[in-house]
Each structure stands twice: as structure tokens, then as C-alpha cells.
Amino acid sequence: MGSHGAVDISHTLFLACHLATAPPTKQRRVATSAKTQQLREIRVCTNRTCRRQGSFQTLETVSGLAPPNVAVKSCGCLGRCGSGPNLLVLPDGLIIGHCGTAAQAAEVMVSLFAEGANSDSYGYDPKNSLDALALRKRADIEFDKRNFTEAELLLSQAIDLKPFGGIHVTFKCRSFVRLELGNYSGALEDAKEALALAPGYSEAYICQGDAFLAMNKFDLAEHSYLAALDIDPSIRHSKSFKV
To answer: Which residues, other chains included, contact 142 with Cβ-Cβ below 8 Å and sequence gap of 6+?
Structure first.
């Protein structure tokens, strides 16, 4: 996806998954060292056995639903072959097994990160979150076809579902689509929404910079780009980032 003016950076709208139904996941706490709301990393085993049991789909779904302060990574064997796909949640050391479907992954994310409360009391519906990811995937397809208006509509529908986690990415994606549509004020507003949810989100700073650049606000654009570089210096070496 291109951008305007002196900066050109490519974005992919994001990943999605298909909805699946599944029995409740099984959990085992290995060592407790922090409260649930302090968790900051999930590792998904992608070793041979877990991979055959669907861990790549789990990795995709968990990545798409992760709140801004939760990193998601793949990892090697967690020593529970046969009960996978397995997740390791840090710093608690919580191992979650039998998480082989998108529905199970969504349930796990809500139960872990919805402030320690059940999803109903916070209005978080795992199915809505999965539907939002599916809409984001459809928007990606429409963007590739240059159907920007349809992509914007799909992303707006995803936002309206109020998914748990990943909504900062959806705002960033819609910001980028609105840039392509020439709606620079809308693009700027979406970039700001993404940054309000995820202050360390470098891609949202780039979208913000692109919007400022399109509006001829060069000093503000430079500030946004420098903020992105400060967060992720590797952007400078990307072939799609040209200053």
C-alpha cells in the first residue's frame, strides 16, 4: 500500500481466521509470579506435534487479538506433546493446552486479559472478536483489488463490533485506507485513535505522518516519522521507507 509525498511505506491490513467451535480449553499453572493483568507475552509452540494440531492458526488468531501491551511469539516445544497446541503465558508461566481452534484462542485471550473478569461483564464477546478479524481479512482483499471504499466499510464494521484486542490495528488499517481515498482528516483521526490505544505503535505514527504530509503540515509529519523511527529504528532500512 502506497502513501503520499516523500514517504512511501507498505502496510498489510492484517491477518484473519475462520470461526470455529470447540470445547473449553484446558489450563495448567506452572508457576505464579504476577497477576493476570500484568502478563506481557504469549508464546505459541510451533514444534512438529503442535504444528500438526493447528498451532499456526492459533498463533495467527492470538496475534490478531493481542492487546497492544502483549507480545506474541512462536516458540519451540513446551514439553507437553499430545496436549497441544500449547501456549505459554509470561511472566506467570501459565501453560494452556488444547488450543487448536480460533474459537478456543479467542476465549483464552478474553479470559486472560479482560481485567480478570468474565467476558459478559465487560461486554467482550469472543465471537465478535473473531468476526472482526474476518472483516479485517476481507478488507485486505478488497484493498488489494483497490476497492478502497469497500475496504473502509469492512473496517468500520470491524470497529463497530468492539472486539477485544487488535482494535488499534484496525484503526491503523482504516487510517491507511482513508489516505488512499483522500480523506486526510479521517485518516489522521484514525491514526490518533490507534495511538491512544497503543502509544508505542510505530505504524500508526507513520500513518499519522502520511496524513500530516498530505495536508502539507510538514513539521508535524516529520515529528511523526521521527517518533516511528525512535520506536523502531529498523524502519530506516526498509526498502519501502524513503525519506
So the answer is: 148, 150, 151, 154
For residues 99 and 84, what is the distance between their CA atoms, to the nearest angstrom? 6
Q: Where are the beta strands (DSSP E) in the chain?
A: 26-29, 41-45, 71-75, 87-90, 94-97
Map grid coordinates 517518533 to a residue. 227
Q: Over the Cα atoms of the chain, what is R_g?
A: 19
Residue 212 contacts residue 188 (beta carbons within 8 Å)? yes
Contact by Cβ (8 Å): 170, 134: no
Q: 2 is written with which cell numbers?
A: 502506497
Q: Which helix (H) or strand (E) holds 202?
A: helix 202-214
For the chain, how many helices (H) and strands (E)? Answer: 10, 5
Assess contact for 166 and 64: CB atoms under 8 A: yes
Q: How far is CA 111 from the centre of its chain?
A: 17
Q: How far apart are CA 174 and CA 60, in angstroms?
A: 20
Residue type, 44: V
Report the chain's terminal Cα–Cα distance, integer Å: 17
Question: Which residues of the chain are under the pLDDT cut of 50?
Answer: 1-37, 39, 116-121
168-218 pLDDT per residue, tens: 999 999 999 999 999 999 999 999 999 999 999 999 999 999 999 999 999
Cα–Cα distances in angstroms (integers) from residue 5 to residues 2, 85, 98, 152, in the given order: 10, 45, 48, 22
Per DSSP, 178 falls in state: H
Cell numbers at 108, concatenated: 483464552
